[in-house]
What we know:
Helix content is 72%, strand content 1%.
Amino acid sequence: MHDDEAPQQPPKPRGRGARAAGGIAVAIGIFLAKAKALLGLVFAWKWLLLAGKLVWPLSTMFLSLWFYAVLFGGWKFAIVLVLMILVHELGHYVTWRNFGVQASLPMFIPGFGAFVRAPLTGTPAQNTAAALAGPVFGVAAAAACWGFGWTLGEPHLAPAQRFWTGCAYVGFFVNLFNLIPTPPFDGGAVAGAIDARLWIAGAVLLTLWVVLFAPTPFGFVIVLLMLITAIPRVVGVLRGTIDPRASGLTAGQRVAALVAYLAVIGIAIAGAAATHLEQTTAT
């Protein structure tokens, strides 16, 4: 007997491709989950490193806060003073960072303000701008305190109750003092960029001010710091080993720096005089 039907093929297993695709999807999902966890760990370490960098600056800031609170007999003024100093230093920091210079975060020295370390890798004009930016920000902070006092109606209060006006006076005065044209002050850096012979006038001015108005141990420490940093440079200018106009600025840049320098000095003097008068005048 002849059978003309085709032989039947064994049935193919169904779902093998789907199972393979599902396995791949699961593997990709596990990989992405682990990659996400790894990225999260990396970013967590990044924040931990950033927190580590903040420990020392914040420690010096809080130490200064405690020092000024003890010195002036209260936390309120100490907090405002430290914040005004911080704003001043952030002027240096932000300006240098905008120029691509790797400046450090502000470090506080109780009783002596604060400082920002920065390698002088910028151009002379950039370094001069960064030096002047601190007093500019500081004067602005003092003006903000003064304006806030006006919004609270301090001009109509008794002089002893004009807290924010007093803070503004201190802010204007401290930044004006910092503009004295001699190292180690910001004014010394700006003056050296304009014409280093200004250091001579600054050294004499600072010494006379301390002798006449602040003959205290703190005042003489300031003079000592000036002698250590400024006198060798002044001697170099007098002997001719330092060219007083060799800062690297062009003539136009020196004129612009001088105008800006004198403008900030003028604003600081006006602010200090006005707030002092307001602080001592009864309504």
